[in-house]
From TrEMBL:
Belongs to the DeoC/FbaB aldolase family. DeoC type 2 subfamily. It comes from Tianweitania sediminis. SMART domains: DeoC. GO terms for cellular component: cytoplasm. This is Deoxyribose-phosphate aldolase. It is an enzyme of class 4 (lyase).
Length: 351
């Protein structure tokens, strides 16, 4: 499925859903020509930070506003974009009351995210559409890995003393190693925000570099905790340092901050990704997380990525949502698309 650039106020034809019926591209896999080379990182170079020290806040807010107000995605085209949102999702449970059984139920939902009626109504046939990953705390990695074995759905583990990142470095590195050994294929680490406030960029670089080494073949997502970083300048600088140190993805938030993923913050981060790509030829992934709970919000983020980075970034290897309740609203919107009625939320239990 290949989302099109949305046209304002017009209902699109059903070409996107026709592609799904034909099963050309499984929605949770990348097209063969879009697989990105993994980021090898580079030596720390303060010159890469200089261009990011000045941020036009009013310009960013104006750009974010126009992205959501000038674009309208309707009809079959909206349904196709919502299916793309589903396929780009890290289905997440990070609660203090998580249990192995809850994680098993969440994995079962990841394997069968849409009801039989929805699949038949959308004409999906044999096309596989699943979230890209299930994201859990370390104690539940083995449970998720067992439940998802052979499915193509990745197992992501939050790590490095999530959500605060304040444990000793040796402890944080060991946590990564244990999660990888338990079956995690993706590791979401958090940075120490104090290193950003103090401008200790080289120390931050070295810590992320150590995290990358501990990950081995597992992909590294670096959570900046943007709601804690105070300024967009800090967000841009932290983004670039993480990429220089070898991050495969940069991620906005833990979901535990008072302010999580916002479009202005996303613009700063994706423009840092674009600058890094222009300088190195390496494509870095982006993951907004926290507060993305509605289908409409997911469409806003897809439009931002399409316009700022291009179609090739709308693949699970380069873009993810961190979400715990988004799938429920996507299901309700797809049911409305087919029947004209919204179903009750309890009909789409997550776990």
């Amino acid at each position: 499925m290949h989302p099109k650039t949305p046209n304002s106020g017009k209902t699109q034809n059903s070409a996107e859903l026709v592609q799904l019926r034909q099963g050309r591209v499984a929605a949770n896999t990348s097209a063969p020509d879009t697989l990105p080379e993994r980021n090898p990182g580079m030596p720390f170079d303060v010159r890469f930070l200089d261009a990011l020290r000045r941020v036009n806040l009013s310009g960013l807010e104006r750009r974010a506003s126009t992205l959501t107000k000038r674009r309208s995605i309707k009809g079959d085209n909206q349904a196709a974009w919502l299916l793309r949102s589903l396929a780009l999702m890290d289905l997440t449970t990070l609660n203090s009351n998580d249990t192995d059984e809850r994680v098993r139920r969440l994995c079962a939902k990841a394997l069968n995210p849409l009801s039989r009626d929805l699949r038949q109504g959308l004409g999906l046939g044999d096309t596989v559409i699943r979230p890209a990953a299930v994201c859990v705390y370390h104690p539940f990695v083995a449970t998720a890995a067992h439940a998802l074995r052979g499915s193509g759905v990745e197992v992501a583990a939050v790590s490095t003393a999530f959500p605060h990142g304040l444990a000793p470095l040796e402890t944080r590195i060991r946590e990564i190693e244990l999660s990888v050994a338990a079956g995690a294929t993706e590791i979401d680490v958090v940075i120490k925000r104090g290193l950003v406030f103090a401008g200790r960029w080289e120390e931050l670089f070295e810590e992320v570099q150590a995290f990358r080494q501990a990950c081995g073949d597992a992909h590294l997502k670096v959570i900046l905790g943007t709601g804690d970083l105070a300024t967009l300048r800090n967000v841009g600088l932290a983004s670039m340092v993480a990429m220089m140190a070898g991050a495969d993805f940069i991620k906005t938030s833990t979901g535990k901050e008072s302010v999580n993923a916002t479009l202005p913050v996303g613009l700063v981060m994706v423009r840092a990704i674009r600058a890094y790509h222009e300088a190195t030829g390496i494509r870095i992934g982006f993951k907004p997380a926290g507060g993305i709970s509605t289908a409409k919000a997911s469409l806003d983020w897809l439009v931002l990525i399409k316009e700022e980075l291009g179609r090739e970034w709308l693949e699970p290897d380069l873009f993810r949502f961190g979400a715990s309740s988004l799938l429920t609203d996507i299901e309700r919107q797809l049911e409305h698309h087919l029947t004209g009625r919204y179903s009750a939320g309890y009909r789409h239990a997550m776990a």
